[in-house]
Amino acid sequence: MIGTDITGWAAVEGAYYAGMGSEAFWLALSMALCIAALVFGARHEKAAYRKTG
User: Count of domains in the chain?
Assistant: First the structure.
């Protein structure tokens, strides 16, 4: 297991989470990627719509 003293799953009681650093960083990164996908998708759709009319 990464970053823990647990040597086997039999010793784990309840929920166990091994986060990779700051949660805020990963949340911000995923939000930025989603927003970028929306922006680029909207730009592409707008350009495609202009070509049809």
Answer: 1
